[in-house]
UniProtKB/TrEMBL annotation:
GO terms for cellular component: nucleus. This is Uncharacterized protein. It is found in: Nucleus. It comes from the Eukaryota. InterPro entries: RNaseH-like_sf (IPR012337), ZnF_BED_domain_contain (IPR052035). SUPFAM superfamilies: Hermes dimerisation domain, Ribonuclease H-like. Signal peptide: none annotated. Keywords: Metal-binding, Nucleus, Zinc, Zinc-finger. GO terms for molecular function: zinc ion binding. The keyword Mitochondrion does not apply.
Length: 377
């Protein structure tokens, strides 16, 4: 009734001179408070947080001009003060969430965790929990997004994960854990079960849910036969500035050549989906630069021969179907559950077709066979 009155008869509820807007997330009409600097800053703070804008937005001249046009009385603060305001908001909301978990009898929670390696080589770990209220409303909150100190071992992950749950008082409310297929997650679950065995509600290993999307690691055993050691040669110039080398070369092509941009080889990250494919694609892109690098004295013996480049290109063709399907299943703006089985079946068919194609190398056909057997388990 309240929604109907606000959407159809808002003039009878909200004064005519009072501004309103439609919340596109809830599809509800919301009343906009009269202007004040405090209210405007809170709204700006929420916009930056929700849309991941940089803190320096408040110091950009075009944005300052835009705000002045909307309301000359709005006083913007500096980016440092803005950052501090966001941190204060985080601390405040974190305390509210902890108090919420203490006050509410929410029952058990389901957790999801994952690790990333940032661009500056920091290992980051995120933990999200989901639960149902007694009104059967699904709730979700991100408990932590922090740097993982030490190695990526399962024991280290388990300790960090449990410490985050403990901070929010959820160590005895863990129902299940969802992770990806990283090899360290098996040890993580074993250690988590061991650490909680004396708790009121210990975590059961059977409640570990593995992410079910197709993963390029499914064929890792088969790829081992595709001259894996030789393919690793493409990483020899990992810290070598290929772009600078070509710019100093008198015979380097003109501006139309893509090597005028600095493109370095990528590192293969075992826990990142399609990582091997992206590494090999980048190496094909900078093939001429890699070949030029390996002619230098310090890189001799690491040359990638033409037949090896052909195997790398074949590996890219082999891995492409995995990437296409994982990218589709990673989508969040459309439903994907109903497409899992059709995509899974299509992947099996493409692997079986590859295995029967005599034009492909024996090594890649063996890789397709291994991947097929693993998918069917």
């Amino acid at each position: 009734m309240a929604n109907h009155m606000m959407s159809s008869h808002s003039t009878k509820i909200v004064p005519a001179d009072q501004a309103t807007l439609v919340n596109h997330a809830t599809h509800k009409l919301e009343v906009v408070k009269p202007f004040s600097n405090e209210y405007a800053r809170e709204a700006l703070l929420e916009m930056v947080i929700m849309n991941n804008h940089p803190f320096t937005l408040v110091e950009e001249q075009s944005f300052i001009k835009f705000c002045a046009i909307l309301n000359p009385n709005f006083r913007l603060i500096k980016s440092t003060a803005f950052r501090n305001a966001i941190f204060r908001r985080y601390i405040s909301e974190r305390k509210d969430i902890i108090q919420y978990f203490k006050r509410k009898s929410i029952g058990m929670v389901s957790a999801t965790t994952d690790l990333w390696t940032s661009g500056n080589n920091l290992a980051m770990m995120a933990v999200t929990v989901t639960w149902l209220t007694f009104d059967f409303v699904m709730m979700e909150v991100t408990l932590g997004f922090r740097e993982l100190q030490g190695d990526h071992s399962g024991v280290n992950i388990a300790n960090c994960f449990l410490s985050i749950l403990t901070e929010f008082g959820l160590q005895n409310r863990l129902l299940c854990v969802t992770t990806d297929n990283a090899s360290s997650n098996g040890t993580f679950i074993e250690e988590l079960a061991r650490l909680t065995k004396d708790f009121d509600h210990p975590f059961e290993k059977e409640n570990w849910i593995r992410c079910q999307g197709p993963h390029p690691q499914l064929s890792s055993s088969g790829r081992a036969g595709m001259s894996k050691a030789k393919c690793r040669k493409v990483l020899i110039a990992d810290n070598f500035d290929i772009g600078e080398e070509l710019r100093e070369d008198e015979e380097s092509p003109g501006e139309d050549n893509p090597f005028n941009r600095v493109l370095l080889p990528l590192r293969d990250v075992p826990t990142r989906w399609n990582s091997t494919l992206y590494v090999l694609k980048r190496d094909i892109t900078i093939q001429r630069a890699l070949d030029a690098t390996t002619t230098q004295r310090e890189w001799r013996g690491s040359e990638i021969h033409e037949e090896e480049w052909e195997k790398i290109k074949e590996a890219v063709e082999f891995l492409n179907p995995f990437a296409l399907k994982t990218r589709f299943l990673e989508g969040y703006k459309y439903p994907t559950l109903g497409t899992v089985l059709p995509l899974f079946t299509k992947l099996l068919m493409s692997l079986e077709k590859w295995n029967l194609d005599a034009d492909h190398s024996t090594e890649s056909r063996e890789a397709a066979l291994v991947a097929t057997e693993k998918l069917k388990k």
